[in-house]
Amino acid sequence: MTAAAQSLAATPPLFQAKGLSKSFGGVRAVREISFEIPANAVFAVIGPNGAGKSTLLNLMSGVYQPDAGTVLFDGQNISRTSAHRRVRRGIARTFQKIRLFKQLSVLDNVIAGFHVHHRIPAWQYLTHGAAFQRDQSQCRTEAKRLLDFVGLADRMGTEAGALSYGEQRMLELARALATRPRLLLIDEPAAGLNTAEVDTLLARIQSLRQDGITVVVVEHNMDLVMNVADRIMVMDYGQHLFAGTPSEVQKSPAVIAAYLGGELS
Q1: What is the pLDDT of residues 127-143, one digit of tens each?
Q2: b/e for 230-264, b at 16 or more Cβ within 10 A?
């Protein structure tokens, strides 16, 4: 075990799932999944199409409630906590299908992410008083910083719908970061990106970990996963198939078989 792996193993888990299950009609999308995610780690979830990866993210983020099992965040049971309350606790996510306010500017899309932390009196929104003005100024400053981080500082006045697909991916990441997450769930972030954009995404995820944000990545791009993840969990038919370091996953016969005999590289 490497020194980095030993350090992560000694870190108390930030997120825990115990026996998570979710069915839709007669289809068991997730079956008794259990895992732990240490703080300040990049944890990847991979598996063939239909393995239940996005359903698992929905259970983690509160979009779905589990039929069975327990979800713990920082030691607290959040199994029945709604999605918006999980955001307030520090869990944010992006989606496989981009969900932006296409008619708003890039800057306003990021500012929208700060709403979960607003603490000004409601009447200030009507009068635009001093507290409102300070809040708006702080949000704009932080939003500009996040746009610079994802490489969109020069596009802040552009309508979100006019951005390229890769730029929209980065904008959704910036908006998720505006909620100030401790745990960031990213669903298929490299989908539709070219090689240069994937390299940029890899650098962003590594930077987030250095800043103390724990990241969960659901992704099909194995080059990205193998280069960024500290630990990988493999799912197949809604079940836990294998978990380990990137090198362990690459050597697992069960994982290779799940990918139809293809090699992981």
Answers
A1: 455 555 565 667 888 99
A2: bbbbbbbebebbbbbbbeebbebeebeebeeeeeb
